[in-house]
Every structure is written in C-alpha cells, then in structure tokens.
Please model this.
Amino acid sequence: MPDMLVNLLKLPPLEPELAALKNANIVVRRAQPYELTPIRSFVESNFSTSWADEILVGFANSPVTVFIATLDNEPVGFAAYECTRRDFFGPMGVVESRQRKGIGKGLLLACLQGLKELGYVYGIIGGVGPMEFYEQTVGAVVIPGSEPGIYTDFLK
Model:
C-alpha cells in the first residue's frame, strides 16, 4: 500500500464536521493520557494489535496525538498522528457499524489539523488503504515509489 501526501494549507474546515457529528451524538476529541488502557483495548479488540501498539507513541506525545470518536461515551473510532514517524497520519479506524457516517472524516481532519498546528505544510498518510476516501476528503495524492514504505516487515 502506498503513502499519500496532503497539502495541510488546503484542508476543509473542521468545525462544521464536528458540529454535524455532535448533532448525531458523536463526539470527536483528543484522547486524555488516563484513557490509554481503555482506548488501546478498544483498538486491539476492533482493529489490530499492531495499531494498538502504534498509538502508544501517540499517548506519550505532548499533547496526546490520538483522537477518539465516542457515541454515548463509548468509543466508535480513533485516529492518530506522529506515532510511527514524524509528520505521518495514521492509524485510523471506525467500527464497521458506524462507517460512512462522517466519523472517519472528522477524525482525519482533527488529526491533520493537529499536524498543521505543529507547523507542517504537508502531511503524509502512511500505508493507505482506502485511497479514494483520502483523495475525495482532503485531496491526497499518491507519493510515487512509496511502496512498501515504512511498514515493511523488518522482523523477517
């Protein structure tokens, strides 16, 4: 899976997305350090152990670089940045029953805004799965020659 590049100066506004989600009782917010264990468990149970490990770095950052989406105070999605490498977005996941409701877009924009606030002009989305989502949502473009990228299995 290739990496993609996003121009952080041309991001769509975050606030309308957060407001629309809030109207659906979904809150997207930065995770708190004391939420590490329940969020890590949520990620491991719903997605993968490697993603759960990856976000541990985000919890060590200051501020925390992990965002969560909750519905009735229960997690339904997460996203992180600056976990695997500096200026990298990911991982991100939304539980299947809540996909295609704008949660991923809200999480993505919150994290990319976080990268922009750190002073980056461009952000890298590592090891992209749903390319069309990133193209349509934030105008991301594939970085030529970026496969296999940083997610090469170094333990082989």
